[in-house]
User: What shape does this take?
Amino acid sequence: MQNHLLARLLTLAAAVASLGARHAAPRQSPPRQLPALTPHDSALHALDRLAYGPRPGEVDAVAAGGVMNWIDGQLSPDQLDDRLVAERATAFLILRYDPRDLARLYAAARNERREGRQGGKDEEMGRRLAGEVEQLAVVRAALSRRQLYEVMVDFWANHFNVFFGKGADRVLAPSYIEETLRPRAFGKFADLLIATARSPAMLFYLDNWESVAPGSAPPAVTRPRLGARPWFGRGRYVPGFSREPAQADSQRQRVLERMPKGINENYARELLELHTLGVDGGYTQQDVIEVARIFTGWSIKRPQQGGGFEFHDWAHDDGEKTVLGVRFPAGHGMDEGVRLLKLLASLPATMHHVSRKLCQRLVNDEPPDGCVDDAVAAWKRSSGDMREVVRAIVHGPDFWAPQNIRAKVKTPLEFVVSAVRAVGGDPDTTPRLAQVVARLGQPLYRHVAPDGYPEREEAWVNSGALLDRMNVAVALAAGRLPGVTVALEAVAPATADAEQLIAAVNDGVLGGAMSDNTRRVIRDELAAAPDPVAARALAVGLTLGGPEFQRQ
Amino acid sequence: MSISRRVFVKSGGLALFSLGLDPLFLARAAFGSYRPLPSSTALYRPVLVCLFQRGAVDGLNMVVPHGESLYYRERPRIAVPASEVVDLDGHFGLHPQLAALKPLWDNKSLGVIHAVGSPDSTRSHFDAQDYMESGTPGVKSTADGWLNRYCRHDREHDDTPFRAVAFGPQLPRILAGSAPSLAIDDLQAFGLRAPEGAARDRLTRAFEQLYAGSATGLLSSSSQEAFEAVQLLRQANPAQYRPANDAEYPRGRLGRSLQQIAQLIKGNLGLQVAFADVTGWDTHVNQGGSEGQLAARLAELGQGLAAFARDLGDRLRDVVVLTMSEFGRTIRENGNIGTDHGHATAMLVMGGPVNGGRVLGRWPGLDPASRFEGRDLAVTTDFRDLFGEILARHLGATDLSAVFPGFTPDPTRFPGVIRG
Assistant: This one.
């Protein structure tokens, strides 16, 4: 234990000494002379973990300006000029559609199909918009100057995972990303938690929208609502009343039969297990039931009416509840839920669970205890300000410790985006680059289970996936990956001098981390590739597809 | 000895990390690297092929209870007339578009389980598919799929890169997890892509050397598996494959997947578990009866399965094909001449080891009093009892409780699809 502490202090000293940080480290430590990261290597590490990898020349730029200065800037994304991405975003039509527009569009597309008109204009547009949601995330990751912010948005999109392929979530998803997650990615955890709990996308995904107190029924189904529009999709709850009075009675009967008849525990369980306390967070099945009772009535409007949040007083369980020993007196309606979310956000188990996941993302698949402790301490100091929690992690010694450098394997998203960035690539607005990420196993926003995409390497490294990565690497370097233009001249000159080419590629793509073996293999291959332009593409392709580039 | 990779990480991970050794790499090494399988027929390993009918197949029109008048009363516009069904036992009959399967029924290598499904009442495609793939009905947080858990817990077989393969662009939930499994969209395109053969070989060798010399940990062992797989497949030469016995696979994704599964089986590449999706079963509107939308999907399924059996010939002896679908459809037809989301459905089981020529499972009948929630066909066989029987009695799984956590498998509840 003492050794552990000593080691951490020494590493901290080394980090502070070598980085020339202007910012006070969280703890004082005696200065010691130790081998440590060079400014160049620390810039590369920061760009690997807090960004989607360096673009050509970026390592040197960050090193020259001071890596801690760069990190500070990343922690205040609003101060960073991001005009390029803002301009690019205007080409994404999805940002101009609200859930109501989308619901209308998808309904029209469905009608087209039903009438046998395949490939009609509404269907076409629906498909385009669905692709844009994923592509927009990839474009932002590749081009934004607010890199750490994009990393955090992706972290939250997985922590608060919603599967966009589930029924109405097709329609509700874009606003979930744009309005629920993005504005709060560096905010207070409690705000983010409340926002996701109220978000129509989450309410639909985890079924809370149809969780009702047993025996309750909406005032609306006690009389026929002639001409009401059918609900989205064809799930259980489809109050699509006929316009013909003769059929209305039996249809109303069917609707009553299909009405949700009690509480649904799905959201309550995942809220405790995944969003807040963690699976070992000390709650019981009875707590899950009580939480579900508290959230009865948290529901949504029909997508055709905007799909917004709606609290149904009639569906709310009015009794008293007790969660984790805390009493929630009867009769407080929706306030009970907000009070519960604030309580959960403030519990040590939540701080530990979420901090651990952040350390797993930013530091190591098996996060060091010290890193988690630093994050939790910052959480307490700042009342759950995620900016401060992340700051504590990246200022802590574990982030810079030698055993955590290049210790993580890139996810498919990280691999594809970092490769595109490394070759000065520019993705267009078609969904083709997002489809590459999907083909490598990580279709964005399409993780079915509520736990989000995993951060562990064994989830991503397998024989088929590696071959796919090699193919993507070779195609990208050759300029053959559809939907991206690359600028290899920014990486290396097209030269017949193999040594010069290898040195430039090592520096530009791997930040100098190329192994002797890789150098040798590439040299051998270049001997058989006389054309300088093809040779450069080959050297870059082998490097991007090789083992060093899979790590960060 | 049974070591799961996860346990290995938990118990030894930290110590090994400090030595710079990746525990997962060691875990894989502990199970032995790939050895070519003996070609003696006595050592062919049993194979399970799962076809997922996504969208909820109408089990009542796939295997028609033509002996029940209620079936005809509830489905005036979409029922398959008794005169057109392919009668099986006087009470049930195959949809006429499945006629290609009748010879397999007659030679006892095709069986049917009726009224099978999930104990969970959900009628959401999303949830029900999720449960059928995770193998944990009602529990959403299960991270891996039951086929993957089977592969993890049954380590008697040597791992080969082709042990568990899903045909399609992505690994499905049912195979998600820590045991290595492959998603293959097209067998012929597996491996490195280059315009011509010599360039491809050169590129493959270059990457192989890159990984052999520079990769560490899981990257090293997985890349080794990858290049072994490429090599094996090259020897099997899928581009030259011709189905045996004049088998004709139907055009489309299903036929292509089944043919590639047959190639892997006949190439003796160590395939044990294969998976493919078959879509287009969500027939809310104009479902049709003997002909129409559903009939077209069934025709493709029937022709595909029949071609697969014919192509495999003798090798069908070691193979079981299982169809599954997230739930069945309403007994009563709806206002759009289709059916809505229901509860129990029917599953087909085909292969040499199958106790075929009979409809298995307890038939609950269509009587309103015996229906689920008063409207749908009741589930009398929990899908885990069916899947569990196949894993235990066909693949030889020893620990079903590890594959279906929270469920106590009981051989007395096995429906009896595998011959004793």
Summary: Residues 121-143 of chain A form the longest helix (23 residues). Residues 15-34, 223-243 of chain A have pLDDT under 50 and may be disordered. Residues 84-114+127-209+265-345 of chain A form one domain.
